[in-house]
User: Fold these one by one.
Assistant:
Number 1:
Amino acid sequence: MRCGAKGWEEDAAVRDRVRTTLSFALKNIQHQHGFLYHFISGETGQRILNSEVSPIDTCLFLCGALTCRAYFDDKEIQQLATEFYERIEWPWILHGGQTFSMGWIPEQGFLKSRWDTYSELMMMYLLGFASRTHTLAPAGVERVAAAAFRI
């Protein structure tokens, strides 16, 4: 049993919920180059409200998925989390720049704003640098460090 001080849940129920969530994310949630949209329908997984592709929202979900991959001794959870991570094309969100674009809108293209000021950006770049399938170039470390310490 685990979860919550007031109501414990059985391991199997938690594992099933994680499997269901990761499977839904891979099979149903609309994405671009692996990156998720900021707002999606919880029923269909499709983009709603003309929202943008959001690298930060993608990374927050990915951090949870990778935590589940490490925590659960479950081959399906590990496979689903890995597949989600490996489909993200990190160089795409750079859009020719030295730092990540804050998003992409199908009707307008990439947002002009960049993830270039210290904030949640560190998790995004670290995940991109560690990717086995779509790795960011090592030179990016210097760009991120410069952004992080420019105050």
Number 2:
Amino acid sequence: MSSQISTFSSEPGGQSACDTDKYEQWLTFLRHNIFEHKLGRGFPRHKDFHVKALGRSVDDWAVSRIVTTAGKSQLIRDSREVAAYPRARYMAYLSLRDDIEFEQFNRHVKCQRASLTLVSGNDPLIHSKMGDNDTLCLGMPSDFVEQRYPKAEQLCAVRISTEGGIGSLVQDAFSTLHRESTRMSADEFRSAARIVGDLILLALGSQAAPSSSTSFVRTSNLARAKRIVRARLSDPELTPRDVASECRISVSYLHNLFRDDGRTFREYLVGERLQQARAMLEIGAANSIADVAMACGFPNMSSFSTAFRGAFSASPREFARVGFTTLM
């Protein structure tokens, strides 16, 4: 059993988060309490950006409170990082002050004060804070979430209010879990975190009942196949056989799963690559358009440009931020 209490502080008037040692400590805190690995890119090292955080983790469960002041911040987990570090939690974010913005599964959501959002650490994600913020975060194991909701991606990057009803109960339980977390034994913490996790999923999935029997098996296999595809978007040689083998199902069954979901395997793969490319172009998260094409699994610029224009009726450069910059 792995159990850890983590703290991080970069206060105004002292060292800022842009200092190298502090910055590395901040990434370590995120690894223990958010994505379970060291992120390659995070917020710009701005001298006025400051963070104060406290987290408790036991195995794959983690709760933390993060307060940021004096500046914008951004965390990016792209398809290359997903492929390199595929094991990650689902994260529930509860905003206590100001807004957090998330982009995932081709959805953009602003998590405002007194609202809750779930995101998947197993999939590409852009997480932005536009100013001062106070946030509670609960990390939940992937298996815990997906056993309850095989199509867990439908719960991600949507916002629900925590003012009234079950949302109010979630906020109270979430806040209490964090406040008391350091006083709990490891077993107590894990049991309490599971209860809060169930409340969060109940609130998010109140209109979507979990599947059962044959439907449960099919939706579980489809969700796993999609997750594998999204994790390997940068691989230009990814084939249905590769995905089927990793899912331990037949290629024909894989194709049936995607057709029943409304798109062929090929359509889903290309669609996800194009959406990821568009997001990277819009935020300038690469040094060049060629780098974007490569990161999203297109074998050459010609095929990328043709597919991109066909999907969005514009060239990649028309979507690109003027002058490419690399975060971090």
Number 3:
Amino acid sequence: MSAIASSRVERWLFPGWVAFATANIALMFVMPGKETIPFHFVWISLSIVYGLQPWSLRRTYVVLAAVCLVTGAALLRHVQNDVIGWEETTEVPLMSMVFLAMVWHVRQRAAAIAEARALAESERRVRDAQRRFVRFASHDLRTPVTIARGYTELIGSQTALAQVREDVAIVMDELDKLERIASRLLTLAQINEQSSLRPASVDLDALLHRTIKRWHVSANRHWWIDTDAGFVVADAERLEAVLDSLLDNAVRYTEDGGSVGLYSRHDGGWVIVQVRDDGLGIPADDIGFVFEGFRSGSVRGGTGMGLAIVKAVVDGHGGTVSAENVPGGGALFTIRLPIGARAATPPGQSRDVLVARNGDA
């Protein structure tokens, strides 16, 4: 309804202005000595109409010339009748220059808006193409990886040669990496396609403890956890993917025996979750781009998908995530999540501090 009304207004805007301007020009002719008000009404209304409905340059110049001629003719008539002085006629070129300045600004703004819309459309097409690529690549990778893993395991089981077994282990390790990449591609595609989250009451402390226990056996690091966050309304599977991505990043940037830990606390209506390590930290050139997809750090290889997944999931929960280097070395990733409809903590549940090395937890 509003679109139809707007279309009608635009259709009658210029004819309405022509009628209004004609009436005021007539008043200029029949009201000697009092032509100032209708004169300015003509020019002001011209500027307003052009601002609402910009015309082509040709039409603009034609209308401007017509207004100059008729308003100038009225003023000249009054000059000839000694009603006004010649200096009054300078209003016509002055108002023309003011109008042309406004035309220039309107056209510049229109060009800027058109360019912004074109860029937005181009970015939308790029994002759509990227989503399609990510989705198809994630599915297409899985089949050859599965087949290659089967044949590699078969070769490993049928050989007694130590060198071949070492080669098989290397191939299996690379296939594991490919499988993780395919899994992250699929996760990223699902998040980018805004698949619905499945929020529920999640015991965040228990989730953090389970995550540490899974990771401490896979990497020789000093693992620690200090958590007292309680329950939060969130998608547990997505939060687990976030923690895995952050811990994978921490392991990659720390050496054997380095320290990696989880920390969580309440902060008003929010929950703070932090992942900290004492590794190489974030290169200065990359710290502003760590959450951009398909951009890896300059120190050690990576696809950049893990941290992109982190940001997408946290954003989907209405939270925020940030990264910084800490004094003495290492990186600190901080997640803020709204608690939501927070459930009560079961009575007597312990919020202990766990300090563990490989095999200690």
